[in-house]
Amino acid sequence: MPTRRSVTWLVYLNDGWQEEEGGALRCFPRSDDDRRANKVQVGCHEGNLQVGWVNDSTPVFLDVFRESGGAALYQLASTTGSETSPNYKRQILSVQDFTVPGQPIDFSIFLKDEVKDKFEQISTSRLDPRFATASTASAAGNAIPTHDFDCSDERTILDIPPIGGTLVVFDSVSLPHLVREVTGKRQRLAATGWFHEDSQFAIEM
pTM of the entire structure? Predict the structure, then answer.
């Protein structure tokens, strides 16, 4: 596609929503220390989506437009330039180019051994319902089962209750997030939209 979702915005519409009704937007932002340590852009680089972090602060991007026809994982390493305006080059982190399947995967299996233990993926089966297995989805009538994901080992957890009139804007690529189950007797209502950014290229038909 010529563009893709980048920044998400939403406005909650439920009046008098109570915390016990659930449905909060749960986010896992980077800590202040992590953000200060990272001088590289996050979210995307030259049209390549960010898929994770190395050492908690360095973004890892997925390049799916390699000359080989495959994909590779890389980070940006500083080369020359001043502290305020450094220059960067791509440092390949994957062992070899690989094929990305149509469903969510664990990218760590493609990484070099010296990087695997330092890599943290943004979307994982522990936090992201899209990782539901085929057997689990089948048992639920091909629908992703609703449940709360175990986030107990996350360093920073931010829950935003869907209280009417609340405006939320966030980078939906680099910020891990999920929606908690609604436990009340009414629907969680919101007006939602996305700002789009250019993809790396568009295929002309």
Answer: 0.66
